[in-house]
Amino acid sequence: MGAEEPKRRARMAGGLSGCLSVFVLCLCPPSAAAEEVRVAVATNFAATLGEIVTNFERDTGHAVVVSSGSSGAIYAQIRHGAPFDVFFSADAMRPKRLEEEGFAVCGSRRTYAVGRLTLWSATPGAVKEDGRSTLSGHFEHLAMANPGTAPYGAASKQTLQALGLWNHVRDRIVQGENIGQTFQFVVSHNARLGFVALSQALHSSVRGTGSRWDVPAHLHAPLRQQAVLLVNGRHNAAATALLDYVQEEQSRTIIERVGYGIE
Amino acid sequence: MRQLTARFRCDYPGVRFDIECALPLEGTTALCGVSGSGKTTLLRWIAGLPPAASGFLSFAGDVWQDDARKIFVPIERRRVGVVFQEPLLFPHLNVEDNLAYGMKRTPPSHRRIAFEQVIEMLGLAPFLQRRTQRLSGGEQRRVSIGRALLTSPQLLLMDEPLAFLDQERKREIFPFIGWLNRELGIPVVYVSHDLNEVLQLARHVVLMKRGSIAAAGPVQDIFARPDLPELAESNVVGAVLDTRIAEHEPQFGLTRVEFFGRSLFIPQQDLPVGASLRIQIPACDVSVTTDLQPASGSALNVLEATVVEIGQTPGNGHAVDVTLDAGRPLLARITRKSCQRLNLNVGQKVHAHFKAVALHS
Amino acid sequence: MTTLLAMDWGPLWLTMQLAGVTVVVLLALGTPLAWWLAFTKSRMRTPVEAVVALPLVLPPTVLGFYLLTAMGPHGPVGGPWKAFTGSALSFTFTGLVIASTLYSLPFVVQPLQGAFEAVGTKPMEVARSLRASRLDAFFTVASPMALRGYVSAIVLGFAHTLGEFGVVLMVGGNIPGVTKVLSIAIYDHVESLEYTQAHVLSAALLVLSFLILTIVYAINRRLPVRAA
User: Fold this and answer.
1) Whose CA, among B165, B173, B315, C169, lies 20 to 30 Å from A136?
2) What is the mean pLDDT of residues B132-150?
């Protein structure tokens, strides 16, 4: 029975995914030139990618299906057979791992954007021009992403350490599980200050409100966001085309406009 | 005389309650009527249980409820004992703790009934340590009565306490209710739809009909009234007399009883001379003669009486009800033909011949 | 073994504290609410019942999002609280207790309401006719008769709070010893690819929950009073 059980489960899983693929095939009639590419993207880049994808579909005729989630969750899904062709991660570590573990195509990995960290407050004037004095001053909570799990969290911690303020503020830190949640803490005034992504502070819903200090890039390791071609998309021309398209000039303009850097 | 005065006005879907009554606080008062007539509701108002109704209620001069003055004494301070239709023993307590629940909450200065007294009277000694679930229906009923009594109430309210009990169980409990009145002087207000039961137990009767009071008075008066359809259509209508045992005539198997200086014979009773006994003379067992020669028939009991009223028997076109005055009201139900043949008139002197039966209580 | 010793067991202890305090608060608030729901004839009953059941159907993140807004320094609850105590409710243990109380409310109120309805009004009427005041009758008659409902309410309330994640994620802020509860710690371990620690904590939670439920069901089976 001990040996039977996993086999039976494998058969069931196989049957289930078989059904799903039949279902997907029915929904999408194959076309000769245009191909479909399935993309997994980290939540913080999903909206930007959406804008680029619209252009891509218009220019190439390919179809793109975008799924978004946390980089960690997508990573785990890919390792367990999720049918994605391309992965836009919020970090460099996970694409690298996928490459090493044989889930991604070697040499396809590239940095599509560099995240920029900013110290932001929803209160105008709360963040002074000098970040160091702001962080040395009076506040109840400083929000940041979890340094153990989120790249922006690690960068926030490095920044505080570089400023020599880590021990000074550590008791006042509240952690979001990801940068999106961290931003929520700040925008709802629950935390007066927070290290968030510049792209969030520039988002149309808050642009021009509050106050911010953009953290100089040298205070933390670069927040490289890398994309990678997955084994699934190896023979998919549209997948390669999309990876290249994101690095073209018009896409770079969009990426920079929303608050990312380019390498 | 101490009285319970109640005035309630209240509209429910389908029923309008309009109650005004004064119940004597002595002996047992029965609230009767068909189901839905409002007997249980009135009992709950007297107890202070929901549903609330606006009105006035006083007990021997103490005001328990007066909406005009915003007075409402909650049930736990009215010092009433309530015996509900079901025994409703507390399942998490054993018999002894059930019995003691109310007693513990009664200040010692108010306690007039001893625990042992109730246990003995109700024969509960063998069950004290039992779980309530392991008692029979009659035993549970006795515990519920005992539990209410141990609060030494100044008024005991009982809602069909004998419903769902077989004859044997009823006979267990019947004497007990009389004992409450006699020995403890606790007035009882008692809801029943069983007129035979009422006849045996009650001293006063309140007859309810669609939310108001159709008739109220001593049981003798109410049961001798032929104009109340609730009674007339049943076989219990007829005179009720409270008598005293005068002598036994064992050679004939008879007992002579007296009331108002008149004698009646009934089948021999196992009671001492001088004991009181309630007897009933069902209206259909009474015949009337205009021949005033005494003892001319086989009936043992012949009383001189005056015709007070002659009325149509409700629900029976071929019969008439003749109300007689024989010192006490007496009712005879005779055929229309007999009535015409005798040419009965109000005020006429007649002889009433009848058999009487004892009502045991 | 070394992993077990090196593990940070703080979140487990904190979680037990949170669940314990939450259950106590829930019993204190849930009892009168369940009683009212069981017996009221008010028209408000249905809407109130629906509100109590909301956490059953809402995703915890929705509740968490609203709580984050409400308990913040400018929020309708956090604002006055801050004016009174000097600090807002978000990112505090008190805040978590409030959040967990709302989140687990139906798990306590519904079994209690069911038990009270099963007991009915009659035993209370009997008790009051036996000279017990309302409160006395409640504590000596209605609640012992609803004992099984209480056991269910305590177990479900405690267990549901133990496993709570979404709401704490939103309003907790992951502060060790204050708001870093077990489910968050497990999530962090998984996110950091520390699967061993995740396994150990998850297994601890699993065994703990199993033990609690087993003990409670065993006790419940032996209870003499069945609210039926």
Assistant:
1) C169
2) 90
Distance between terminal CA atoms of chain A?
55
C68 lies within 8 A of chain A by CB? yes
Most distant CA pair in chain B, distance: 70
Report residue B346 as tokens.
């109000």
Residue A121: per-residue pLDDT: 96
Banded pLDDT at A62 (limits 50, 70, 90): very high
Q: Is A174 within 8 Å of C173 when comparing Cβ atoms? A: yes
Domain count, chain C: 1
The fraction of chain B above a pLDDT of 90, given in percent, is 40
Q: Which residues of A126-147 are buried (b: 16+ CB within 10 A; e: fewer)?
A: bbeeebeebbeeebbbbbbbbb
**Shortest alpha-carbon distance between residue A148 and chain C (Å):** 6
Can you give the CATH number for the domain in which C189 is found? 1.10.3720.10
Per-domain boundaries in chain B: 3-231, 238-359
Listed residue (C92, C146, C139, C96) closest to C119, CA to CA: C146
For residue C179, the distance in angstroms to the closest alpha carbon of chain A comes to: 9
Does any domain span residue C228? no
Confidence of residue A15 (pLDDT cuts 50, 70, 90): very low
Domains of chain A with bracketed CATH: 6-114+224-257 (3.40.190.10), 117-214 (3.40.190.10)
Question: Is C68 part of any domain?
Answer: yes
**Does the B238-359 domain belong in CATH 3.40.1490.10?**
no
What residues of chain B lie within 8 A of the CB of C145, using their CB?
90-92
Q: How far is the C-alpha of B189 from the C-alpha of A65, rounded, in Å?
A: 82
In a domain, C170, yes or no: yes
Judged on CB neighbours under 10 Å (0-12, 13-18, 19+), A80 is exposed
Tokens of A40: 């997994």
ipTM over 0.90: no
- The nearest CA of chain C is from the CA of A190 a distance in Å of 5
Two tokens, residue B103: 């007693």
The reply to whether C11 falls in a domain is: yes
Query: pTM for the complete prediction?
Result: 0.79
Give the H/E segment covering residue C197: helix C195-222
A abuts B (3+ Cβ pairs < 8 Å) = no
Architecture of domain B3-231: 3-Layer(aba) Sandwich (3.40)
